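ok trying this again, last paste got cut off
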Amino acid sequence: MTKPRQALRLIRVNVVLVRHGLDEIVLATHLFRPVRFLVYLSPFYWFRRKSISRGERIRRALEDLGPIFVKFGQTLSTRRDLLPLDIADELAKLQDRVPPFPGVRARQRVEEALGGSVKELFKEFDETPLASASIAQVHAARLHDGREVVVKVLRPGVEDLIHRDLDVLHLIAGLAEDYWSDGKRLRPREVVAEYEKTVLDELDLIREAANAAQLKRNFEGSSLLYVPEVHWPLTRREVMVMERIHGVPIRDLATLRARGTDFKRLAENGVEIFFTQVFKHNFFHADMHPGNIFVDVADPAHPRYMAVDFGIIGTLSPRDQHYLAENFLAFFNRDYRRVAVLHVESGWVPAGTREDEFETAIRTVCEPIFNKPLKDISFAQLLLRLFQTARRFNMEVQPQLMLLQKTLFNIEGLGRDLYPELDLWQTAKPFLESWTRERMSPGATLKRLLAGLPAVRELLLESPGRINVILRQLAEGGMKLDDTVALAEFKSSLATRNRHLYRAAAGAALLLGGILLLGLSELPHWTGVTLAALGAATLIWGRLDA
């Protein structure tokens, strides 16, 4: 984006902010301080409605600035650990309503991307869009074999628009962080950087199609969630073709009620889907707002969710999965000491944090909440309060957990709309306990050890060569150990490395030997189990000693 265009866009942003009575944000930057008196001459200043809250003024300004700013506001609304609650609540009302672009232009985009005419590619193609959003719009179509599909098409010029507005957002974030009184605390640069990664991912429809395919495999044969099938031959970066689904929009409660839908089961299934995605599959739909969810009510007593729009997907590292599950269970059991220890162990708060002080702060937040009936406790609000408390202890922002928090807010809010008596805690606790037991079972431990054997093998094979290189460099003078202390450290390190290698080799041999013995029916079963257990213990001993 050229600097003149960026400057013009920035001026436009400032004009919109002043028009909506947000002159305090504009004038907070050093650029406008010398001319701040001019604001008092502006008609926007004299005739603005002073009764409108600051949250509503910000929301209206973002709506006027266009779709990218709207999406940014939606993302910002999930950062309740950083925003004042009144602003976060108002930003949550932002809707991604964008006028459609002409169907003729959509047809041209499809033909350019797929290299053929629409008549050749489809039996039918409806130029009137089914839905339109800031990144893309969707058209109904029919393949030559009669299957109904939807065609998702990126908006013309959307990439340039997004990059232009991202440049402006980065500029505004930098000014706000440097010159706004709350800038350092709210870390706007970090917020914009997080948003940028999310929105740029949505520009690649092949990536979205791959997400949909993976999610479909994860729930293959499930009665909980249906994911439409991707039609790969007609999918490109700018165009995606997918099976058309016919379900009731989740926000259409009147129709669901008329069909006799079991709302209690539907709400509980939503919770189970969330925890299954996060902990069992480690691959979760991170944009599950009501516009992306439909319900199959062919069997109203056993309703099934149907999902669309897979541009934003979240994953967690095994470490984050473990600490998250442990934290949830510790909260369920009111073990605040364990919560504090887990936050320090995970690195979510600095290592020097006093666990007793953190425990006291967590107890202060949780006890008033736990004194309510479980059905009246908001899981999402609890997380929010904890994030706000942890901020006092310099808790580091974890972007992957922000996607999770956003999804949890959506799921819980949706569940309570469907069934106000929803007890999210009671539904989640058995799942987490079962997942934890399964993860710590001997079979799961053995599976993880076996998965690590290739790395142990490579270590065993490569280490002699690496040691020879080091020794040769020492002999040839390419590596110098100048003093006795350094030489002693090197010898100690080498001895430790050899000890770990011997233990890894012995453990791997015992483990593999035990597995082989288990396959021999003529030998007692306990011999293989014993040998495999000794091997696993030796490997674990080596890892702990390392």
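PB: full thing came through this time. The domain at 98-166+201-244 is CATH 3.30.200.20 (Phosphorylase Kinase; domain 1).
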